[in-house]
What does this fold into?
Amino acid sequence: MTAFPPRAAAFGDDAVGSEGSLTNISASQASGLTAHATTSTAYHPTAQAGNDFLPGPVLLLGAPGVGKGTQAQLLVTKYNIPQISTGDLLRGNIARGTELGLKAKEIMSSGHLVDDEIVNQMVLHRLQEPDTHQGYILDGYPRTLDQAKFLDRTIADPIFLPRLPVVAISIVVSYDQLLQRITGRRTCPTCKHIYNIYSNAPKVADVCDYDEAALTQRSDDTEPVFIERMKTFDAQTAPVVAHYRDQGRFAEVDGNLSLESVNVAIEQALIDLRRATR
It folds into this structure.
């Protein structure tokens, strides 16, 4: 079962690691699998993929707030592939009044979660569109082991281009750094500038540097909410990670680096994984 809250209600997915931003985060060492990116990987130039490199389906993983959205957009821009968000698919199907959208709307109106079958079918239809033939970035799907297995079975059919398996890359960060990033976030209600009291504090506490408005904190940027979100994330993600790790289609990158270095590490991991899965 899958829930899709409006994006504004989530923790947010700001850029990873740029100095002085809200995103300085740390990560565990990458595992010893051949395909894994390690801390040292991020400090070396990415191996050239070549003009004919197909990124294929890429699942970016990471706890709420690690910057998956920013990293996904960098890959989208470089490879000219779409980012497929199940939240966007759900909202789009509801807005267009499709059969799946109407079913999902009825379920949500009754206070229940949208079931995997509906989500899977929305994804299946999306993956048949021409812009996915070089690859795509998966955002928020698969969330569960059943979804991961369904996706593997689906794209194994030769009709689904580019005929490559999903590879999963996780931006790994420390709990304490993520907690500071989320609970330290403050926003100016006037100019919308975002601060962090731990890493990018305003000159005067709780006052915007630009218009002197009193800064606000989102209601879900609290430690109790963060703890529950992390519990949910860990419980849902662990089986998905194990699934891709067991098949040699998983890598970790260190999120405690600059935005550019994290991107380099992700690209290197993607190249290594594609070489290993061909």
The beta strands are 56-61, 83-85, 135-139, 167-172, 185-187, 194-196, 250-254. The first helix runs from residue 68 to 79.
